[in-house]
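dumping these here so i dont lose them again. two proteins, back to back, each one seq then structure tokens. dont judge the mess
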Amino acid sequence: MNHRAFKLSHLVALLLSCVSCAIGPLTHVGVAALPPPEYDVVVLNGRVIDPESKLDAIRNIGITNGTIQAISATSMRGRTTVLATGLIVSPGFIDLHSHGQDEENYRFKAMDGVTTALELEVGTGNAEQWYAQREGKALINYGASIGHIPARMAVMRDPGTFLPSGDGAHKAATESEIEGIKQRIETGLKQGALGVGFGINYTAAASHWEILEMFRLAAKRRAPCFVHMRYAGLKEPTNSIRALEEVLSASAITGAPLHVVHISSMGLRATPLLLQMIGEAQSRGLDVTTECYPYTATQTMIQSAIYDEGWKEALGIDYKDLQWVATGERLTAESFAAYRKTGGSVIGHAIPEEIARIAVASPLTMIASDGLLDNGKGHPRASGSYARVLGRYVRDQKALTLTDALRKMTLMPAQRLERYAPMMKNKGRIRVGADADLTVFNPGLVIDRSTFEDPAKYSEGIVHVLVGGAFVVKDAKLQSGVNPGKAIRAPVSR
């Protein structure tokens, strides 16, 4: 090699060495120069809380094709990017008890952070038809149980619509009628209903044996039973303790999983005793769970069996504690009698505030709304339950931690269903591979704004809500022209 060639080669080597020092080995130059992956949606710099993994840290989330693809402390690019600095990023809230299953109610659910709303107490009488009616038309995810109430109403030709008012409520079923009810429930389970719904308080004439037969049917498929118990309150002998004994016994005898709905509106002042019973049952291996809503009043139809003779003693309230939903007026003996004849929705101010707080804070309870709005009329729980827990009970009263509250709204309801409906294993979590159902909220501002007089008011502080990676709420505003909600359903069999 001549001297000039040597100097040139030496210079080239020196330059390459300098480049290597600046950007790393040459073998990595091509990789480092490539842009990071581009996701459909990126949520940047939010405080991500995942109750399952116990992650609570500032992270970025990348979403593609409706699924969480990446969770990272490093930056990422997306076709759509939202900055979540100062905000909480949570799994989307899951409501196991949402009677409002239409466009009006889905809007209020989304603005309260709910990404999945399920009708599991009353349920439906025809699962195939119910799901078909909502396919491609829902703002959020939806699902239903097959209901003992609608099955009983159909078999016994009850004239009621949503709840029974005739033989479905007040007549004992014959053996052949019980078989007819069972056939309808079995059909619904084969069609992918999420379990069996019960409102025993509304079907007051249903025998203990009839209820046990329905539990046996559910147990064959390990389908959960979602139960509004037979009695409320403390009055002996028809009280909430005895009612809980009935369904705990049915679960123990048959092996059917049990979920007791709205524990505080059944227990009233006895709620701590019911929670103790459920905890004891769990400690002995019984598959039983429960829920509550964060309000001090009930709501149901005034013509239902709940308001049959003896309601004042059972609920510990009087006419003045009843509020007519249509007008907001408080009732008297005269107006109560008149409205019982015409029928309609009534609110019962029956739950003491300290009981509502105990129920919300209990580690045993999930949060569920029991909500229904009809043309703007109803109960504030339909529109504000989740924001109320986060604002009133977490931030203001410190009755429970933020992480515990989010667990009650996300992971616990997903776990209640996932053994029977495996698709729920990808709900209620923030992890790679999970469905991109996310709720992003401001912990300092989140609160319910709905009232008993004006229940149709959106919650505040819910900033973004994604369902399957699609924004249904963005920058605290509902998005129009989107219906990403999917059916939540158990496996269909024939």
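---- next one ----
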Amino acid sequence: MAVMVLAPFFFGSVDLFWVSLWTITLSISALGGFFVPLKKGQARILLAVVSLCCVYGVVAIIQIVPHAFDRLNDVIWQRSSELLATPAQPRISSRAEIPPLAIGHVLLFAVALINGLCIGTSRRDSERIVRCAQYFILSFAVYGFAALLFTPNLLIWANKTAYLGYLTATFVNHNTAATLLGAGGILWFCSAFSTAQSVNFDSVRTILLSRSSEGLAVKLIIRSGAALLCFAALLQTGSRGGLICSFAGLLGAMVLMMLAKNRSLKPSYAFSVLAAALLVCFLVLARTGRIASQGLIDEGRWSVYQLAFEAIKRRPLFGSGAGTFADQFPAFRSSNLPSWGVWDFAHSSILEIAVEMGVPVAMLIAACAFVSVYVLARAAVTADGYDQRMLAAIAGIAILTYLHSLIDFSLQIPGYLIVFGILLGCGLSRATSDQVNPIDSRIPRAEAKRSHRI
């Protein structure tokens, strides 16, 4: 909980010091997971995470090993030998060593996900961590509004040099702030939607006439207000991608909750409603804010995507080396791209992975992302009680995050990466548990019934 709350605070924890600190802290925390008994499905998720990290690590090591595959060596080593008249060991990567930040980001996501996986073995602990995320992101939204109103030229204690007039809270980039606020909005909206689903038409009159139902009404108002506050803060970020992807994730979560409530409803009908709602939302959002004035995606980003595809075509198998995109991009930069700005990210995480690590690794990661959404969605439809609401919300957050990672680099910012990794691991653990139902064997029966009523 402490790492999840503190990681976004220090400018998104993008520096190597914070990446190292949070990786060590979460690794120590994950050691306690060895004493937690895992179900068969949870063990498979853990094995998949470890296997994916091993594949990534093996490819990264092959890239820096001299003469691993001479046909794939970077030409920079031959040119440097000729210009400097000194022998250089040729290798696939354009760097002789793996950059520490590249290692740190992979390890950080792995340990965050493993922590979430261990937390998800207990329904009580998973409820606590999700509730902590809800209130933390709500506080993040309140702070963002306060900072925008009272200290618009400051980013925490430093001078704010970018995105003046937009809500960024503790992040440097408004897109990452939008992604975190969208995740919080989905969590709060699913809580409110679950409360509203428990009220049927026949009981509305009873609720209005009975004082004993005041708690339910207050709960619905508070949760709805918190969701609206998060989405209001999201609008103030001015992030086009964050806004559209957040609504896509929210609609996905709503469809899952509708399918769980009415299991006779055909999935094809529900997804048709989702597609129609997405189209309507897109048409409405296209007439507001930066989307209306600047379009959906700026020309510079399209140019970067085209250059990234060219780089992938040249080295599709093993890429250019882990963490080398910022080194390689100037060689591909064309005159079509404006001269201002430093492109140290591809603004598409999957494209950047394909450039650095090769197409096979990128396809493997994309497949794992798709499977994770499928596992969460399937479990959300069949679960009951709190598990159903939590799984639907995390599935919506996964949709938001994966879609946004296609057009930006929010998953490459540790301050958001940690939050998403813990929530995703927790959701996958609950989705693959044998006890995805209102009663958890690790909770007393009376308390489980009370939680189910809530």
